[in-house]
Amino acid sequence: MVIAGTMMVGITAGVIGSFTLLQRKSLIGDGVAHAILPGVVLAFLITGDKEPWVLFVGSLAAGWLSLWTMDQIQRRTNLSPDTAVGVVLSVFFGLGVMLMGVVQAQETGNQSGLDKFLFGQAASLLLNNVIFLSVVCILVLGFVVLAYKELRVRSFDPQFAQSLGYDRPLLRYAESGLLVIVLTTGLQAVGVILMAAILIIPAATARYWTDRLGPMLAFSAFFGAFAAFGGSLVSYMAPRMPTGPWMVIIAAGILFISMIFAPQYGILSIYLLNRTQALRIDEEHLIKAMWLLRERKPDQQNFSLAEISEMRPTDPENLLSTIFRLQRRGFLVAELSRADHWRLTKAGRNEARRLVRVHRLWETYLTQLMEIADDHVHEDADSMEHVITPEIEALLIQKLGAPLKDPHESDIPYDEKEDET
Amino acid sequence: MTMNLADTFIDIHDVTVAYDKRPVLWDVDCQLPAGKLIAIIGPNGAGKTTLLKAIMGLVPLISGEVRIHGEPVDRVRKRIAYVPQRESVDWTFPVNVLDVVLMGRYGHLPLFRRPVQLDLEIAHQALERVGLKDFSKRQISQLSGGQQQRVFLARALAQEPDLYLMDEPFSGVDIATEDKIIQVLEQLRNEGKTVILVHHDLQTVQSRFDWVVMVNMRKIASGPTEEVFTSENLNTTFGAQLNILSKVADLSKQSGIIRHNRRV
Fold this sequence. Notes:
The structure holds 2 protein chains of 2 kinds.
Chain A: H1 2-22, H2 26-47, H3 52-76, H4 81-106, H5 116-119, H6 127-146, H7 148-156, H8 158-163, H9 169-185, H10 195-207, H11 213-237, H12 243-261, H13 267-296, E1 303-304, H14 305-311, H15 316-328, E2 332-334, E3 341-344, H16 346-368, H17 377-384, H18 390-400
Antiparallel strand pairs in A: 1-3, 2-3
Helix pairs in contact in A: 1-6, 1-9, 1-10, 1-11, 2-3, 2-4, 2-9, 2-10, 3-4, 3-9, 6-9, 10-11, 10-12, 11-12, 13-15, 13-16, 16-17, 16-18
Chain B: E1 8-19, E2 22-33, E3 37-41, H1 48-56, E4 63-68, E5 71-72, H2 73-76, E6 80-83, H3 97-102, H4 117-129, H5 145-158, E7 163-167, H6 175-190, E8 194-198, H7 205-208, E9 211-215, E10 219-224, H8 225-228, H9 231-238, H10 243-255
Parallel strand pairs in B: 3-8, 3-9, 6-7, 7-8
Antiparallel strand pairs in B: 1-2, 1-4, 4-5, 9-10
Helix pairs in contact in B: 4-5, 5-6
C-alpha cells in the first residue's frame, strides 16, 4: 500500500519532470522543491496538525511564493536567472530549517516527525497520506492527459503557443501549479532535498530511449515508478534507511546504464557507429589503392601485399583484416596461383571506379570553381570521397561538364562498359 | 502612398513598444493592404521582429493599437499564422515533423481537444506543398536548416490563415528551400492571402515584394515597393542618424519612466 503510494509519486514526477526538463527548468524545479520546506513547517506550527491536506496547503503556498519571488528577482533586478534560483533556494530552505528548530524547541519530547521531510521516509506514510497522495497524483495525470497538446506546444515553441492564445493565465498557472503540486506530493516519501532529482533523472533517462514526447512520458513514468518501488522497498525492509536517497541512487543507476547502452544516443552505440565508419573508410582506401595500382601497371591484374601497402601505407595487421573484409564483401579475390596476391572483382572495380571518380571530381571542383590551389586539394578529397552521395556527384558532373582529367592530369573514370574481363 | 481606408487590412496606429523600459519602436503608424507580399526591412536592432510581434499581439504595447480588418488581434487569432525565427526553438525536442505541422491545427481545436483525421489530412497536404511529403516521420533534429524552415512554413499552411507573419524565413536556408518558400508565398498571394515577413536581403526586395515597410526604431516608409524602395529611404533607414533617438531610449531605461499600459 505504502509502496503503491510512492510509486504514484514516481510516475507523476516522471511525467511532469519530462516537461520541466524540456522547458529547461530543471534548476527552477530544484529551487521550488527546497523552498517548500518552510511552508510545511509553518503550516504545522500554525495548526499543530499533521493532516496531509494542511501540510499540502502550506507547501503549495511556499512553492508558489518561491516561483513568484524568482520571477520578480529576474524582472526587477540585474541578477541572472540562475542567481535568482540560487538565492531563493537557499533562503527558503534556510528559513525552513530554522523553523524546524523552533518546532523542536517547542515540542519537547514530541515526535513531530518533521525531520522526515528532509530525506523522506516511505515507511512513515499512513493510510490517509497514501489515499491523499494518490488522489492528487491522479488529478495531475488527468490534467496532463487533457492538456497534452497545450503542454506540448508550449514546451516546444512558446512564441507560437502564445500566438495561438495559449498564454492565458489559466494555462500558465496550471503549468507552474503542476510543478509545485508534484514536488509537494514527494514531501514525505522522498523529502525536499532530493525531490528535484526524482523529477529530472527519470526524464533525462527517458530521453535516451525515444524521440517522441508520448513515449518519453511513458518511459519517464516507468523509470520514476521503478526507482520509487526500489527505494521504498529498501526503506520498508530496513526502516532506518531513508527512502529519497535510495530512490535517487536507483534512478541514477538506470540513467547511467542508459547513457552507455541506449540505442542511437548511448556511448556504446556511438562508439560502434564510429568504428564501423572507420572500418569502411579503410576498405574504401584499399580498393582505391588497388585501382591506382592498375592505372600504374595496366598489364597487371594481381597485386602483392607489398605493392598494396606501398600504395597505401598502413600496419600489416590492419591491411590483412581490411583485405579479408573486402573478400567477404566480394570486392576482392585472392589469386590462387600466387600466394598473397589479390585482384579486384567486377563489383570491386565498379566501387573503386566510383571512389576514384568522386575523388577526382571533387579535386576538380575545388580547383576550378572554388579557386583552391591544386596542391591543397588531395587531402580534402581523400576524406570527402567517403561522404559524397550520388546526388552530389551528379551535381558535380553537371557543374563541371563531365571533365575527363582532374587537376593532376589523371583520368576521371566514368564508363563501366570498357571494363570487361 | 495614402490608401483608401476600405483597402486597409492591417491598421497599425501609433504603436510604441519597449523592452525592459527601453523603447525599440516609436509611434509607428502604418496601414497595410490585403493580398500582398510585404517585407519589413531595416538594420539589426531596428525593431523589425518587434513590429511583427506587435501585429500578432505578442509584446505589450506602451501606446497605440493594432487592428486587423477593424478587429483587435484577439478576435482574429485563428486567421493569422505566426512563424517565429527558426533559432527560437529547440530542434532536439522529441517530436517528429508531422507532430510539428499538426500544431498548426491546434488553434482550430477547442482547448483540451485532440486533432482528428481531417487535421491529419490538412497537415499532410501542407507537407506536400513545401516538398517534404516523405519526411513526416522524421525526427526534427535530423533536418537541415532549410528543411526546418519548410516545416515551419508547413505548420503555418496547416493553420489555413488569411494572414502570414513570418520572422526571417530565408535566414540560413539553402537555395532549393528559398525557391520553394518564395514559390509557396507567391501562390498564397495569388490566392488572396497576405504575407508579411521580416527580411534582411535587400537585393531580393524589388523582385519579390509588392510592398515594403522600412523601419529603424520608427517607421521610415511604407508603400508599394516601386514607390518607397528608393535610395533616399534606404539611406535614412540604414544610415547612422539615429543617435538622438537611441540616446533618449537609453535615458528612458535608466529613469524607468515607462509604465506598460497593458500586459499581453
